[in-house]
Description:
Distance between the termini: 5 Å
CATH architecture: 6 Propeller
Helix content: under 10%
Strand content: 35-45%
Strand order of the largest sheet: 1-26-25-24
Number of domains: 1
Number of helices: 2
Amino acid sequence: MRKLLLLTAALTLIAAFPASDASPQGACNPYTQGSWVVRTAFPPPGVVRSWGTFFPANGRFYAMGGRASDAGGSDYVNPREYNPITEVWTTKAAAFANGQVNNMVGGVLTFGATPFIVVVGGSAAGQTVATSDVRQYDPVTDSLTVLATDPWPGNVGGTVLPGGGAVFNNKLYVLGGFNINVGMTTQIYQFDPAAAPGSRWTLKTAALPAPGLGYIPTATSGNFIYLAGGSLWDPVALIIDSTSSLRYDPTLDAITTIATIPRATGETRAVTQPFDGSIWVLGGGRTLPNPSNEVDVYLPASDTWMLAPSFSTARRNLVADVDPATGMIWATGGYGSAGTPVAINEEFSCVIPVELMSFGVE
């Protein structure tokens, strides 16, 4: 009977927690039962400016591109695969055709019946030009393909990096961008893998508020894409963090404002926590006192912000994503507070204590 009472008390505590507007009853509560744990580090010296993607079909986490330092030629042209079960990093045999693999955005898209990791745009370490390439990676066959029929049209002049990326209804949306050393952009582009080759991109009518944003923490929850923070361009200070907070409705093709994120940030990722559909913005930022290890949480149902557990090492331009089924998050590498790449790999998970899981009676 004591175990049954403990279980009842635990479920009551979870149900009563104020942050879970739409949380499942009895689910592990990430705000009270979640924590960050250091796992096997990315191979030294670390990684920055890589696009992180969790691939549900095989349960692996991928670091697509990025680089080891800011020196030319330090670009990672082979995807890195992390196995959460064995905690082993593997360098894959597939290779990008060139080193323009930094500052990409992407997501998992299904072509026909087959899921792929798709990444858009990118630049090479130390360079001021960008690619328009759309690359398709198949983790199952370990093969990389350039979708030559559908380059990203937002790379006007060959110097624009994509700003934020999120998937909604099996379409990838690229929002804003950084025209290198010139300014930010406002356009929103939609990539549809179901469209005929050569016609997969659509420029949307809606646009981000002028003067635009780059390096935007972006994630999808429900029927909307949320943008929290992002980088502005200042001719003197160059790239600076912002508190811009927006919601994009892909169905109506409309941008609206939401409650402002409590701190300025950018150059990081946002992920969606499946527990309650909240948006988690993971550290980031370069404007002092950034970079940060703070995790800011946006609750769409109430249009409010709160905090989740912070990870241990403050950084920006980290590699991150979430398992949409379990809520497990990876935050790997990035520039640390000293401004140099780090190799740390932190994993967030939620675990109900064993004594609260027992259904036995005495």
